[in-house]
Amino acid sequence: MSQPHVMVLAGGLTHEREVSLRSGSRIAEALRRHGVEVTIRDADAHLLPWMAEHRPDAAVIALHGGRGENGAIQSILEMARLPYLGTDSSNCRLAWNKPTAKDLIHRAGLPTPKWFTLAHDTFRDLGAGAVIDLLVGHLGLPIMVKPHNGGSALGAVAVHDAADMPAAFVSAFAYGDVVVVEQFVPGTELAITVVEDENGPRALPAVEIVPTSGVFDYEARYTAGFTTYHTPARVSDEIAGQAADLALAAHRLLGLRDFSRTDAIVDAAGVVQFLEVNVSPGLTETSLLPMAVQEAGLELGAVYRDLVLRAIGRDSAATG
C-alpha cells in the first residue's frame, strides 16, 4: 500500500498531558520523515466525529497515564475498527494494574521485590500507625510506596525513615484509593524495551538509569540533567542477558504486543528483578525507548512506520 495516514493520539486530561504532547510531537515528526502522513489529535469530544469523517488508516497512541494505558482508548479504537499500535485492551488492563502484573510475574517464578497492596480504608479502619508498624516490621526499610496504577512515577515515594511513611501514603493516595507498598531494592536500575518485528519480539539494549536524587521520580524522568543514562547499560553480558530474558518473558506473559518497556533493578546478588511494565512508553527527548532504539542501530520513525504497516496488515487479516 502507499504510505498510510496515521492518527497520533496525544494529550488527554491526565497529570501526564504535557509529557504525552511531547511524545506525540516527536513520533509524528519521526514518521513524517519517512513519508507518512500524520495528524495529531487529542482524546476529546471531537475525536470520534473526526475519525468517522477522515478515516485514518491506523492510530499511534502517545497518551500516557490511564488515558493511554488502561485499555479504555484501545477499546474505543477496537469498536471503531481502527488498527492501532500496541497491546490490546484486555491485556492493557493487566499491565496497567501494578499488583496484577507483579502477581502474574511472581506466579511464573520470575523475581520481583516483595510487596503488599493496601486500600485507603484499611488505614482508616485499622489505624495508620499500626498498619505502618506492621509494614516496616515485615518489609524493613527502605520501602517504596506508589499508586497501584499510573505512570511516570507520579505519587511514588521512597521511604527511608518510618516517620516519613504517613506523608508517602498521602502522596500515593492522591492518585487513587489503592497503593502498592514494595520492598525497596537498591541496585542498578534498568529499562528494557521490547519491539516486535516479522521474527517476533526482540529485546533492545538495556538503558541504565542513574538519577542524581537516587530515585527515578517524575522530575528525574522529564527534567534534562536530573538523570544520567548509559546505553548500553554498564552491566556484564550475563546480567544484560538476564535483563533481556526478563523483559521478553514479561512481554509474552502479560500478552503485550508491538512494543513494551520493562523496568527492572539489578540487586546486590546480580539478580535482575521485575519492577513494572509500560505499554505506552514515553517518546520525549529524555525517554528511554528512543535511547534503546538508537543504541540498537535503528531509527525511531522507521521502527514505528513498520509497526504501523504490521498493525494494518494484522487488522486486514483479522477482518478478511
List the uncertain runs.
none
How big a fraction of the residues is strand? Answer: 15-25%
Most strands sheet:
6 strands, antiparallel
Give the H and E element order: EHEHEHHHHEHHEEHEEEEHEHEEHH
Protein name: D-alanine--D-alanine ligase
EC number: 6.3.2.4
Main location: cytoplasm
Catalytic activity: 2 D-alanine + ATP = D-alanyl-D-alanine + ADP + phosphate + H(+)
What does this structure look like?
This protein is of the alpha+beta class and 320 residues long. Helices cover 41% and strands 22% of the residues. It contains 13 helices and 13 strands. The strands form 3 sheets. Strands 8, 9, 10, 11, 12 and 13 form a 6-stranded antiparallel beta sheet that branches. It has a 4-stranded antiparallel beta sheet with strand order 4-7-5-6. Helix 1 (17-32) crosses helix 13 (300-319) and helix 7 (120-126) packs across helix 8 (128-139). The two termini are 16 Å apart. The model has no long low-confidence stretch (mean pLDDT 92).
Topology:
Blueprint: E1 5-9, H1 17-32, E2 37-41, H2 47-54, E3 58-61, H3 66-69, H4 72-79, H5 89-96, H6 98-107, E4 115-119, H7 120-126, H8 128-139, E5 143-147, E6 157-159, H9 165-173, E7 178-183, E8 188-197, E9 200-203, E10 207-211, H10 218-222, E11 227-230, H11 237-253, E12 259-266, E13 272-278, H12 288-295, H13 300-319
Parallel strand pairs: 1-2, 1-3
Antiparallel strand pairs: 4-7, 5-6, 5-7, 8-9, 8-10, 8-12, 10-11, 12-13
Short summary of the structure?
One of its GO terms (molecular function) is D-alanine-D-alanine ligase activity. Mg(2+) 1 binds at residues 263, 276. The protein has 320 residues and is an alpha+beta fold.
